[in-house]
Amino acid sequence: MTQTFEIAVFEGDGIGPEIMTPTVTLLSSLSEASRGYDLRFSTLPAGAAHYAKTGESLPESSLKSAGAADAILLSAMGLPDVRYPDGTEISPQIELRKAYGLFAGVRPVRLKPGQASPLNLPDNREIDFVLIRESTEGLFYSQGRGEVTQEAATETLRITRDVSEKLFRFAFDLAQGRKSTGRGPGRVTCVDKANVFRAFAFFRQIFDDIAKDFPDLIADHAYVDATALWMVQKPWDFDVLVTENMFGDILSDLGAGLMGGLGLAPSADIGLHQAVFQPCHGSAPDIAGRGVANPHAMILSAAMMLDWLGLKHNNAALLEDGRRLREAVENVVARGDRLTRDLGGSASTEEAASAVMRAVFAA
Hints:
Layout: E1 3-10, H1 16-33, E2 37-43, H2 48-54, H3 60-68, E3 71-74, H4 92-100, E4 104-111, E5 127-134, E6 147-148, E7 153-154, H5 161-180, E8 187-192, H6 198-211, E9 218-223, H7 224-233, E10 240-243, H8 245-259, E11 266-270, E12 275-279, H9 296-312, H10 316-335, H11 349-362
Parallel strand pairs: 1-2, 1-3, 3-12, 5-10, 8-9, 8-10
Antiparallel strand pairs: 4-5, 4-11, 6-7, 11-12
Protein name: 3-isopropylmalate dehydrogenase
Domain Isopropylmalate dehydrogenase-like: 6-356
Keywords: Amino-acid biosynthesis, Branched-chain amino acid biosynthesis, Leucine biosynthesis, Magnesium, Manganese, Metal-binding, NAD, Oxidoreductase
């Protein structure tokens, strides 16, 4: 029986529409060839360019429609010269996280053996771990509401038991799933700064409490500064890392650097009911309209969307196509097939996406 899924699409700013178009084309092609599912897309307005025209960054109608969809596919958002009156950038993606309670920011870091990396890795080394960033509170809690005077500025870091418990259960469940498929040893590392801040000691205690419910998994801790060091020295040792919002924001970019750049870094923000899938990189207005943007992170984010929908709805066809799409990108990059300039090539956005299309349907 074919299942139908409604996908809300935010095309984004800058290069956002340029990388979203081939991604939706790929997803549509997979959907048309499948007998197990059907994807239907609805494009919704939001973003910095929309704010510049209307004074709204995320219209209430878009928020309502996206919330009713089965999944949300979001491209790069924001423009550096379009800001709110307080000087902060337009960021509907953060508004979506808070509105829907998308507490788990999932940032996979994957490097196949032999794939180019800024690190001098042995040929047989594979990197395959997942960083989970709490996405609704932490140091982002007081976004837009921090106190600023002539003498000082104060932002509030907030960690709650309710959100942390959901976050840690998500992390252990993910590690359990990775272990069952042979992709990890079943290890979850809590990344914090519990030696200095009471808030992180609280965070760590909640982690330890939840870990007791998963006796077949390994639970350990690491300070954030040491984790940054080890991500460079021995990234193959990690399985699932879970951390606070700001720490995760920083470490996820380091993870992208291990893979060769933000052009290969997908992400998902997942809650109990909704989920948003988007590339980690920005809108790059300096190259917008030139047809040279790297579409791979957007495509990989779409693959994560298929995986999430497949698991949530017990749909094997979605899971299979999510795998096919992810592996197609990985194989194209490993072969150096039609790479964009950020990866050392000269391919256009269309050429890079077409290479992935060929790889998907050749498999």
